[in-house]
Amino acid sequence: MSPIVMKFGGTSVADLDRINHVADMVAAQAKESPGGVAVIVSAMAGETNRLVGLANGAAGSDLVGEAFDDEYDVIVSSGEQVTSGLLALALRRRGMKARSWLGWQMPMLTNQVHGKARIEDIEGNGFPEAIATGEIAVVAGFQGRTEDGRITTLGRGGSDTSAVAVAAALKAERCDIYTDVDGVYTTDPRIVSKARRIDRISYEEMLEMASLGAKVLQTRSVELAMNHGVPIRVLSSMAEPGQDNSGTLVCDEDEIMEKQVVSGIAYSRDEAKVSLLGVSNHPGIAADIFARLARSNINVDMIVQADSRGPELANMVFTCTERDSDLALSVLSEAKDQIGYDRIIVDKNVAKVSVVGVGMRSHTGVAEAMFDALSSKGINIQVISTSEIKISVLIDASYTELAVRALHSAYGLDAVG
Length: 417
Ligand code: ADP
Ligand code: ASP
Ligand code: MG
Prior knowledge:
Largest sheet: 8 strands, mixed
Bound molecules: adenosine-5'-diphosphate, aspartic acid, magnesium ion
CATH class of the largest domain: Alpha Beta
Number of strands: 18
Structural class: alpha/beta
Number of domains: 2
Distance between the termini: 43 Å
Helix content: 25-40%
CATH topology of the largest domain: Carbamate kinase
CATH architecture of the largest domain: 3-Layer(aba) Sandwich
Strand content: 25-35%
CATH superfamily of the largest domain: Acetylglutamate kinase-like
Radius of gyration: 23 Å
């Protein structure tokens, strides 16, 4: 008899009414689950943003890096502490046995990378045993602790990862992620009204969708689920009793009968394009530039190198997150003489739009359809990158929604009616 894991995001626990509704759902699930129930909660909607603002305000521009990050985690993790206690109380009021579990109490052990720590182990200090006695465990998501006792957080959206990690540790039957949409859609339903709910999506496609910007699941949670074989179901926390709420199952590719060539469209506005113009073109130059970026922990995404005004000079263009682009600018500007280039330009007014689908492995013409659809709307492509199951393009940010809608139609993903 395996336990069930349920996770509720910020909008699902936004106030006491919502928390009471969640408590009703958890109590009903507990009656049907002889293996027990663990619930993971996020902070109330908007609370983490408020806490981030407080931390930034206290630090000003004086404290950066190590002098800031460990206390940032102490502050921003507190939102989840509140909701775990509130939900435990709401369950007790319903006559259920329940208690809250904070990251340090379980403990949820992580590495020391404050602000985006990775889970290393759940020791389960009495935690599985408590669930086996029928006590509902209400776990504060998003938070962990290092081996030496400091509090960490798992990166924005990290409660999804807490939930999958708990499901893997408990060998749970399933990890149900309850949120404010009723499943994973072919694209963000908030920008394309014709988006369709997907019944089943493979771990691999979901991993690409999440890492390319679909924030319905944190990327790391999908990776963890894939590695541990945890089935994830994404469904609505707001469904009325009797309403269909089958959601989306994220599972192995071979459990999916109907495979699509393109399953979904993702977009990300958190992109910046860095162009180094007039770089002297000789072997080792790319290695030098990207080694400097790696030493500063800057994650580079797309890269293009092309000759400029003859073969002696090249232009080197790459993308990274907006936040990293500030650091990239200072690292590369400081090394201008050593690298040898004319000019550096950072453009934050760009977005990445991607099409994802395992069917691309065996079908041709997917890229052509993408470029056609974008050109028919007059959208210029600045950079392209591909993998086995995705094609991404960088475009002017003001065309993001237009591009997503055009691609959604071009691949026949629009809902009928
Ligand atoms: P929670 O607070 O429950 O963790 P999030 O806001 O993190 O919820 O994630 C849910 C949101 O993800 C939805 O409201 C939706 O706007 C967005 N989203 C982006 N892409 C998709 C997609 N392909 N399918 C479903 N939702 C998506
Ligand atoms: N509360 C955290 C955030 O807003 C974690 C989460 O919601 O998953 O990022
Ligand atoms: Mg989320």
